[in-house]
Amino acid sequence: MGGIYFDKSADREILRQSYQDNGVVVVKGVIGQARLEAFREVALKVVYARAYSAGLDLPAGLTLDDAFNRMCAADRSLGGSIYDCLRSHPEAVKLIPDRSIVDYIELLLGTQDIYYAIDQIHFRIDRKSEERFSLPWHQDYWWNNTSKSAISVWYSLVDVPLELGPMGFLLGSHRQVARIRVDPNYKIKWDQNRLFRIADPVDESQAIDVPVEAGDVVFLNALALHRSGRNLSERNRWTVVTRYADMFDPQFVAKGWKSGIRVGYLSILDTDPGCVVNLEEVVEPQLAESAVLV
Fold first, then answer.
1. Are 244 and 141 in contact (CB under 8 A)?
2. Which pLDDT score is estimated for 194?
3. Which distant-in-sequence residues (6+ apart) come within 8 Å of 6 by Cβ?
4. Would you put residue 284 in left (φ > 0), alpha (ψ -120 to 50) or beta?
5. How high is the mean pLDDT in each 10-residue block of the chain (294 residues)?
C-alpha cells in the first residue's frame, strides 16, 4: 500500500506512474493546517447558525463534532443543510483552482486544459452508526460522467485513521466502466446515495483501506472502484470532494460537455447506456432499444 502514498517532494514521474497503475494516489500535506482550521471554524459557525435558526439553544464553546451531534440529536434533517451550505462556501470553492491541487491534476491528466466540475462539489459528514448514508462500491464516473479519465479530489478536515472509516479501494480497477443497476424509481423518489449499484460481485479480499491525515489529498481516477468506510469512532468524518476533467477529452467534447446528475436526470443514461444492465426499467422501451443500438 505504501506505493500509493507520496510526499510533496516525491518524484513526479514515479507518482504519475503509480496513479496510472493503481487509479489512486495520496499526496501528504497538500493543504496547510491553517487553511483546514479556517474551514473547521466556518463549519462550526454554520452549525451554530442553523441550530439557532431552528430554535435550538446550543451552549457556547462546543467543539465542531459536539455542536453538530447535538443539533442532529434534536432534528437529524438539519444536518443536510450543513452539507449543502459548506459545499458552496468559499473555503471549499477557492481550493478548486488552487495551484496546490491543480498542479497534480495537470500532471495526472497530462494537460493544462482543465475542466472544473464546479457544480459537483460534495461535502460529507459521516458519523458512527449512520451507514445508511454510506456509499457501497462505486465509480465516481456514474455520477460525474464527464470523461473516463476524470479525476476526483478527496480531502478531510480531520485525520481519518482506520477507526474513522477511510475509503476502501480496489487498486487497478480503473480500466473500464463497471456494469451498473440504476434505481428504477429515481424519478419518483430521488436518493443520490441509492441511484447506482454495481451489478457484478466485488472481491472484497483484494480491497485496501486508505487512512489519511488532515491535509492529505487523495487523487482518484473516475473509474477507480472505491467505497465509504465504516466510522466506528465517536468522532465525525468531515470530507470534501471536487472533480476535474480534461476539457478537450474527445469523448467529453463529443457529448457537448454534458455531465453530472440533477433531480430526475442521470446523464449516464444518455452517454453510456451500455453499462446499465436494467436499462429497460429506467427509460421508455423505445428509447432503451435505440440506446442499446447506438
1. no
2. 87
3. 14, 15, 18, 25, 26, 27, 28
4. beta
5. 87 97 98 96 97 96 98 95 92 92 98 91 92 90 89 97 96 96 92 91 94 98 96 96 95 86 88 92 58 39
Question: Nine-digit cell at 37?
Answer: 482550521
Give me 69's grid cell: 451531534
For 138-151, what is each residue's pLDDT tens digit?
Answer: 999 998 888 899 99
| pLDDT given for residue 289 in this prediction | 44
Q: How far is CA 291 from CA 6, 23, 279, in A?
A: 42, 29, 9
Strand 5-6 and strand 24-27: pairing? parallel
**Closest to 247 measured CA to CA, from 232, 263, 259:** 259
Give the sign of the dihedral formed by CA 265, CA 266, CA 269, CA 272.
positive
Closest C-alpha to 196, from 217, 215, 177: 177
| Terminal alpha carbon distance of the chain | 40
Cell of 277: 444492465
CA 135 to chain centre: 10
- Taking the whole predicted model, whether its pTM rises above 0.85 is answered as yes
Please tell me what DSSP assigns to residue 189. S
